[in-house]
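Model the whole thing, not chain by chain.
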Amino acid sequence: MASLAPTFGRGAMTNSWNDIKNADVVLIMGGNAAEAHPCGFKWVTEAKANNGAKLIVVDPRFTRSAAVSDLYAPIRPGTDIAFLSGVMRYLLGNGKIHQEYVKAYTNASYIVKEGFKFEDGLFAGYDESKKNYVDRSTWDYEFDEQGMAKVDETLQNPRCALNLLKAHVERYTPEMVERICGTPKDKFRKVCELIATTANGERSMTSLYALGWTQHTTGAQNIRSMAMIQLLLGNMGIPGGGVNALRGHSNVQGITDLALLSTSTPGYLVLPSERETTFADYMKARAFKPIRPGQTSFWQNYGKFFVSQQKALFGTAATKDNDWAYHYLPKFDTAYDVLKIIDMMAGGQMNGLFCQGLNVMMAGPNKTKIHQGLSKLKWLVVIDPLQTETARFWENHGEFNDADPKAIQTEVFQLPATAYAEDEGSYTNSSRVIQWHWKAVDGPGESRGDIEVIADLHSRLRALYKKDGGAFPDPIINTSWAYAEPAHPEPVELLKELNGYALEDLPDPADPTKVMLKAGQLLPGFGVMRDDGKTSGGCWIYTGVYTEAGNMAMRRDASDPTGLGIHPNWGFSWPANRRILYNRASADPSGKAWSERKKYITWNGSRWVGGDVPDYAPTVAPDKAVGPFIMNQEGTARLFSRTAMTDGPFPEHYEPMDAYIANPLHPKVTTNPVVRVFAADAKSFGTPDKFPIVATSYRLAEHFHYWTKNVHDNAVVQPEMFVEMGERLARAKGIRNGDWVEVSSQRGMIKAKASVSKRFRPIMVDGKPCDVIGLPIHFGFVGLARKSYPVNTLTPPVGDASTNTPEFKAFLVDVKKTTPPAQPAVA
Amino acid sequence: MAVTRRQFMKVSAAGLAASSVGALGFMGAGEGLAAGVRPFRLEKATETRNTCPYCAVACGVLIYSSTDGTKDGKAKVVHIEGDSDNPINRGTLCARGAASLGFANSPNRLQYPMHRKPGSDKFERVTWDFAMERISRLAKEDRDKNFIARNRDGATVNRWTSTGFLAGSSCSNEAGYLTYKAMRSMGILALENQARI
């Protein structure tokens, strides 16, 4: 998500599951939808069967997605940017871009500041001692006296974003792509040619990706590379196009929207940092004035969303006089992502931890370090429907978890939570559709809903702080908790609070003598939100989900008037029930569809019309030249991302931290130069002399993360951990199918059975054959499946430079034949 | 017209008796077949619309629950299938979703609050009240001791960084929002979820 917002303005899957059927080309890279998202993959099948679509799969392994593809290309794990930059080079060098779209709807023509440069693997402003870009002032446009970005419509200026991009990707020749990625030149060329067939407005390509792109030290830039390709092709905002993140958990989109993230607040607002000491400081940095004439720059409404949110959180305690309770919010000094939390635990800087359905012992990187961290906590609270490795980290499971309970002083609580069948509420799916679900049965035993557990905890703390006082009790005591039953807030009460209310009578802007909304009424949309405390709303992008007309998430009208798979009355799709984001870009600058085949939203002479909600002011005429990317200050999407990404305005190939080769582009800067490495982890990375094999982790069709090893049927069909390896490597190591093998990395060792397959074949990297092995992630020491060593025993404790999503997809190992593990002490 | 599946089977079987089978001289076979049709096992089950708990395709599912055969009289999930009305999955489920009955009823579902004392090698059952009271006290003790009202520059920061909260990505939006509210009001910064891992 941290790559889509800097490019397009919003960080979310741009199109919908159903819309995939409109694609002419489907590119699956950085994911394996056929096995990880089978029912979403159905729409790929639909596109192939009924729209003549071609499927391209680029993956280190010949996956089941690859098995039904029209074109498969192998790639070495962790080299996607080299591949995609090569694609950009092909498109730019062969005139295979959608010229008019690129000129009108991207920042291609914007002139970049004089001092900006890229040399020897580094962008301007790098400080070697701080391992960071300390001066990013040149990562920006030239501005005129009015504060408008300078552009050269003729695209002649060598400092136009497009020309800088051309120069940047020039190094990624097919030969260089082959050398880095191991993808044979002819295969690579075929992929480029097929992708290029969509650069015309007549045909579209959709990109489907998942953790295969995010779980890298260059994760966000992997996705940005594809976002840029889709802009060059003109594939954003149109049916069958888009950059589509296929997300992992049933409500990971919703939980992200609601900002269970260390430096965010709901609706992608930003938590204040400690440098923003006053509300005025905070707002000054968020004026979001347009930087091109006449642009929308929708984030100019930031204050309205923020103040309405503070009213939802703190009610009457948030007033104009106290800057809407600005100081009730904590101010951050640094991001507290999961890797940071693990490092703090291991360093003894954390005393308590709650794990609400997040099995950190399995989901975090470097199991040994996580175990150390949990062992140093004073207390751990696990709230989960299932048995987890996290709740039982202190238990001895033989060599699979060789813990000494006597030595571990952590006090542990394991609280039984209900699951989906046992509560009601809404989930937001990968494509932003909020759907309600109803309760079927009570949970097992004494299990309780997450709402009830949190409400109980808050109520007790509130009572304790009221009675005994303590450190800054104000925000706890004054948190708005106006639920009919404070210990049991109803999900509908909470969804209404998220939507927001008019807190006073709101006058009609067209006729101030009339009342538009009465005090206490639900807001119809975020357009009526105010920054004077007269409206509330917990998450502005969700406003419209529960209006005076009812709970829109409950809507179950599956009709699809256009036949394009929009289903406008099924649930509610944020924002404002839009199904395809940036859909104004489906029409040319004059408001006509680029082609009859891809017609979606057009101008009818007085307004924008079509089967979806226009992502645009409904009556602003095309001649006003307002850009389709209304969230961005430019009104256009960004090929050059200014300072939005920590590791550069253009993507660049860097090797994974366990580097298989010295970076052929710039051997002195082999790995991502701004990756955060904690002092404790300085010696955690492996080298190819000791660990000459590339490993990647993956998911099986039969399992869901670490849950379904607790489910009988799944545990029967995929009962235990294995290591998938190609025939060449197996032969070289004297390993046969079913033999026990030891896989070791700089972090640790696991044992598992070998599965020798034709799905992995050696690829030629930098002139030498490279073997890749695959490790399914699902197995651990708790569950109905056989006990196994967790994969994260092997993975490095490092994450993406922008998001700190841990590297699970490219690391170095060695493999040898071994003996079976001993029986664990605890059955 | 509301026709249950069982009625449909009976009508079909009766029709069968009156038509081809009857015509072939197997009189009575249809009635015999109709009498032999077992009651449709979901006939008395309650149907509830829900969403698959696994990935973010968010397939619609129909959950069938029943009190039949349960010892405590509590309704139990007896069957799960794809919701054919849902436009996203049109009734399909994958290998995981199709087996999700086993998740709802897994023997590894947690039943009771459990407590593990420092240095102990076992969990012991406790009451909710004991657990929540103890957790609240531990949290307050840590917050009161380690809360940072001002940073070194004297700026108001009101943060509590010695306790963290890892949120579930399969909790509902409503649970997630309430979690956000409760945790931020305490000044917790180490608040994260699956999105970035």
